[in-house]
Known about the structure:
The complex is a heterodimer of chains A (about 110) and B (about 110). With about 110 residues, chain A is mostly beta strands.
Amino acid sequence: GENVEQHPSTLSVQEGDSAVIKCTYSDSASNYFPWYKQELGKGPQLIIDIRSNVGEKKDQRIAVTLNKTAKHFSLHITETQPEDSAVYFCAASKGGFQKLVFGTGTRLLVSP
Amino acid sequence: KAGVTQTPRYLIKTRGQQVTLSCSPISGHRSVSWYQQTPGQGLQFLFEYFSETQRNKGNFPGRFSGRQFSNSRSEMNVSTLELGDSALYLCASRRDEELFFGSGTQLSVL
């Protein structure tokens, strides 16, 4: 079955710096790659997603890139702010109603 | 529109007991998924229900079971609790491919 690896497990940056979180997946049939953000005491919330027919997608300060050949996808956050501090999860699925397989999470800490 | 509601928020049980967790999805959502979250393991998929039928299943032992009612509300049951079952159990309802998570039930097994 699908396996998703995520790195790093923790990431500390200064406010205004950029942050990059990387994931790899194992199943070449996966075609949907969302990113979820989990704030303290809350459930994860979708922040951005990308499909296998697209190489990059941006939404304001966040962007996701996908390399299908290498089976890598990454989350990029620019101009980080303290409110970006949270746990971020990548995930992969074969689309439709297939289950989402999550990575192990990255705890991002943005210091003022 | 109300979000996904999970009850109870916290639960403390002892080894060998059983527990039932409840989840009410967003109105109109017919799919409910359950995940176990532990430090270092991320989100592990338990199962998904759609229209009262289990549609997907993860790799958990048979002690973990679930069901869905005609109003789309779902329950998850864990029998013969073990210390390793201590975790945050998250429920999510689904619209297309997007999951909407509740805040979870924090289960502690002593």
